[in-house]
Amino acid sequence: MNVQTNLENIQENIQAVCEKVNRSSDEVKIIAVTKYVSTERAQEAIAAGVNNLGENRDEGLLEKQAVIKNGAVWHYIGSLQSRKVKNIINKVDYIHSLDRMSLAKEIEKRANKPIKCFIQVNVSGEDSKQGLSKEEIIPFVKALSDFKQIEVVGLMTMAPLTSDETVLRNCFRNLKLLQQEVLSLQLSHAPCKELSMGMSNDYQIAIEEGATMVRIGTALVGKEK
Ligand SMILES: *Cc1c(COP(=O)(O)O)cnc(C)c1O
């Protein structure tokens, strides 16, 4: 398990996909998802050249931040309980999991500065998945206009757990279509330029469909816990 080698492989894959669909690989950021691994392993990712780190628990985030001080960009990617907001809100750069009004209100109340937020969308409509339904997105984005501390930088989704390429592709494509609807509103609080989609097993398809941030754990830093 060598993070540097994994990163090089992933970067080569991203390069190849981008060439195939005529995108620049500069448009795609890798977020190293370190939720399954130690702080040491997360530091290996930083040493290899990744500076975006993703965590899905307040404990894991704070533990790693206590040690990693060299200018990493921190992403909160997991479902976020309202009572935990105060623990992390002024320590992260991005939240990928804004999925309800009560959470937006808590962020608004606790944040000292505007936070870059992704609205999480349950594109596939599976019961088990976090996120707002497609139909809820436009009203939700509009309702956020009064929230001074929330900047809607993009949309995020988790694809269904399947290896069926058509299903995955449809999911990512639908998120992109939804982004275009948001963009057409031209709201100043919702520039919505980013698409956070694609993980270890499906990031190549996600990039073909327009991902600008891929959240990669297992394929990059492995899985220790
Ligand atoms: C764990 C997780 C990931 C990374 O998953 P891998 O399959 O290990 O790459 C990405 N996004 C979210 C929201 C996660 O919880």
> What is the alpha-carbon Rg in Å?
17 Å
Give the topology string: H per helix, E per strand.
HEHEHEHEHEHEHEHEH
Structural class: alpha/beta
The overall pLDDT average reads 96
Q: Bin the helical content.
A: 40-55%
Strand order of the largest sheet: 7-6-5-4-3-2-1-8
The unreliable regions are none
Strand fraction equals: 15-25%
Largest β-sheet summary: 8 strands, parallel
Shape: globular
| Tally of DSSP β-strands | 8
Seen as an oligomer or otherwise, the chain set is: single chain
Bound small molecules, by name, code or SMILES, are:
pyridoxal-5'-phosphate
Q: What is the tally of helical segments?
A: 9
Amino- and carboxy-terminal Cα gap: 15 Å
Notes on the structure:
The structure is a single chain. 41% of the residues lie in helices and 17% in strands. It is an alpha/beta fold and 225 residues long. An eight-stranded parallel sheet has the order 7-6-5-4-3-2-1-8. Helix 6 links the parallel strand 5 and strand 6. It is globular, with a radius of gyration of 17 Å. The chain starts with a helix and ends with a helix. The structure holds pyridoxal-5'-phosphate. Pyridoxal-5'-phosphate binds next to strand 8 and helix 9.
